Each structure stands twice: as structure tokens, then as C-alpha cells.
């Protein structure tokens, strides 16, 4: 179900105060780099304890909207919310050009398979010049738009809580979208339960969820360097390139847009195959027709959040 509507007015300022959660890292480091150290090894007894805590947190909320992108974290959260709350949990996906159509299809399929409520809501981040200019706060403006729209739906339906799938590992990267969550009082139950990505994957695997080993994903706008305008045309070019690489059988990769140059990041486990001259020729065949003059393969391989590296300088 796709929910259409006009861009909402400014959020009521009475909503703008911090989310109260039990993890200090979440409240004090919402949009800054933090040093967390390596995630702990998955321990069966510990993740069961965390799973029980997550269930208790969701049960206490009573009725929730889950911001659902279809990635492993939001997928597991949507599933867990449905397991605990049934029809009182609804997963809502942004109907945005920044989300690949294949990801939307995957999100729909998983929701159908698991039987939880799923809807779309139109978002308008590309109408916001502060989003389009693509400075270091782009992610804030995107999430601010999404959470404002979800607040509107929540208010219309009398739902008190919105949750999203940030986890403990996410606190160690620059993610200004977490600041938007704080402003809009969006809760982070995976963080409150102390769950790391590897633990979420293991819990999903134990539950028999096909998303348990889904590659890490992010919105298409994250492929564009800070300072380069983000437009629907640019992100669609990136999307076409990534779908073509996926069709070649690669699993974890990113297409990074640099104007006339495309920089392809392939996971190191798959990099040897990508370096084959015949494969290099296929990359050229894909990206030259998309308008790139130069086609490059990044020898460091895929790194999550590699565009954020410039923020350290």
C-alpha cells in the first residue's frame, strides 16, 4: 500500500527533544565518530538475553511504526515487532528515488513471506535544497523528511511510537540521520537491547529469515561525494550501474559517482574476479553508455561509508 500526501508542515517544536534510551553511546554520540572497539563475538546465551530484552521493549511500546528499508536490521526489527505485537506493528518504507527499486521489491517480498503489515509513504527530500546540495548533513535532511512523514502518519492513526533499525555498530560511523531520530523521538530498540550487526544476523538466521545474510545496503545518495548535487537522475544512473554489476554475480559492492568518472568498489573476497581483464571489459560496456568517460576499479575494495573518509581530514 502506497500512502501519498503533501509535504508536511514544520514539525511541532514540542517534539524536539532527545530520545531516552538506556545506552549512553546512543544519546551522547548521535552524529559524531565514536570509538567502540571491535564488536563482541556472538555468544548464544548473551544474544538470547538481548533478544528477550528487545521483545520486552517492543511489548512495552504497545503499537509501533517501523521505518523499514528492507535491509537486515530494519527487516529483523519489523519481523520482531510483528512477532510481539502482531497487527499493532506496521512497517513503512519510503517511496523515494534514493532507494533502489530492487530493494523495494525485496522489502515487499519479505513482508509478504513473513505476513507483517507493510506500506509505502511518499517522501520529498529531493524538493529540499539542503538535501540536494549534498553537504555532510545530507543524511540528516533525508531522515528528517522520513521521520516527519512518519510522525504525520502516527498522529493520524494514534500510534505513539516510531522505531528504526540502527544498531550498536552504527554508532561508530558518521551518521547524522541519528540526530534526526533524536529530534523526532524515534526509538532505537536494537541499540537499547545492545545488539550488534553480527548478533542481528545470527538471530535472523536462527529464526529462519532469508535476509540473515543480505549484503549491507545504503541509500543511493550515499554513492555521491559530498558537495556534488544529488538529483534523481544521478541516483538512477548509479542504480542502473549497480543492477548491472549485480547481474554479473557480484554480491557486495558500491558504484561511487564522481562526475565523468565512476569508481567501482568490490568486496575484497570478490576483487580477484573483478580484476580479470575480461571482467574489466564488461565494466566498461556497462558504464560508458551510462555517460561516464572514465571507468575505474578501487583497489582498496568495498568499504562501508567510504565517502565519509573525507570528513576526517
Major pleated sheet: 5 strands, parallel
The CATH superfamily name of the largest domain is HUPs
> What number of domains?
2
Based on the coordinates given, report the CATH architecture of the largest domain.
Answer: 3-Layer(aba) Sandwich
**Global mean pLDDT:** 87
User: What's the CATH first level of the largest domain?
Assistant: Alpha Beta
Q: Calculate the terminal CA-CA distance, rounded to whole Å.
A: 44 Å
Percentage of residues in DSSP E strands: 5-15%
Structural class call reads alpha/beta
The CATH topology of the largest domain is given as: Rossmann fold
Spatial order of strands in the largest sheet: 1-4-3-2-5
Describe this structure in words.
This protein is an alpha/beta fold. It has two domains: 2-206, Rossmann fold (3-Layer(aba) Sandwich), CATH 3.40.50.620; 220-312, 2-Layer Sandwich (GMP Synthetase, Chain A, domain 3). The protein has helices spanning 24-28, 44-61, 72-85, 101-114, 129-132, 138-157, 177-183, 189-192, 197-206, 232-247, 268-274, 277-287, and strands at 2-3, 64-67, 89-95, 117-122, 161-163, 253-258, 261-266, 294-297. The strands form two sheets. A five-stranded parallel beta sheet has the order 1-4-3-2-5, with helices on both faces. The protein is globular and about 55 Å long. The chain starts with a strand and ends in a 16-residue tail after the last strand.
Amino acid at each position: 500500500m502506497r500512502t501519498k500526501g503533501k509535504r508536511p508542515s514544520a514539525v511541532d517544536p514540542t517534539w524536539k527533544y532527545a530520545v531516552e534510551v538506556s545506552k549512553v553511546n546512543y544519546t551522547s554520540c548521535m552524529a559524531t565518530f565514536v570509538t567502540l572497539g571491535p564488536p563482541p563475538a556472538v555468544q548464544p546465551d548473551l544474544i538470547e538475553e538481548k533478544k528477550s530484552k528487545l521483545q520486552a521493549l517492543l511489548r512495552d511500546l504497545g503499537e509501533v511504526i517501523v521505518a523499514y528499508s528492507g535491509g537486515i536490521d530494519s527487516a529483523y526489527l519489523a519481523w520482531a515487532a510483528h512477532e510481539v505485537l502482531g497487527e499493532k506493528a506496521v512497517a513503512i518504507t519510503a517511496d523515494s528515488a534514493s532507494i533502489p527499486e530492487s530493494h523495494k521489491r525485496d522489502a515487499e517480498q519479505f513482508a509478504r513471506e513473513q505476513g507483517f503489515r507493510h506500506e509505502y509513504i511518499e517522501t520529498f527530500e529531493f524538493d529540499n535544497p539542503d538535501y540536494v546540495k549534498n553537504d555532510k548533513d545530507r543524511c540528516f535532511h533525508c531522515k528528517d523528511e522520513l521521520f516527519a512523514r512518519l510522525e504525520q502518519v502516527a498522529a493520524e492513526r494514534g500510534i505513539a511510537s516510531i522505531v528504526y533499525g540502527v544498531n550498536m555498530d552504527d554508532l561508530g560511523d558518521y551518521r547524522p540521520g541519528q540526530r534526526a531520530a533524536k529530534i523526532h523521538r524515534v526509538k532505537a530498540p536494537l541499540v537499547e537491547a545492545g545488539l550488534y550487526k553480527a548478533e542481528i544476523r545470527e538471530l535472523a538466521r536462527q529464526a529462519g529469515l532469508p535476509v540473515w545474510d543480505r549484503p549491507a545496503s545504503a541509500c543511493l545518495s550515499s554513492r555521491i561525494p559530498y558537495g556534488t548535487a544529488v538529483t534523481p537522475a544521478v541516483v538512477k544512473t548509479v542504480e542502473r550501474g549497480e543492477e548491472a554489476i549485480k547481474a554479473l554475480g557480484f554480491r557486495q559492492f558500491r558504484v561511487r559517482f564522481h562526475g565523468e568518472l565512476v569508481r567501482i568498489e568490490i568486496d575484497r573476497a570478490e576483487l580477484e574476479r573483478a580484476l580479470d581483464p575480461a571482467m574489466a571489459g564488461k565494466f566498461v560496456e556497462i558504464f560508458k553508455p551510462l555517460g561516464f568517460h572514465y571507468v575505474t576499479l578501487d583497489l582498496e575494495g568495498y568499504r562501508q561509508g567510504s565517502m565519509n573518509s573525507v570528513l576526517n581530514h
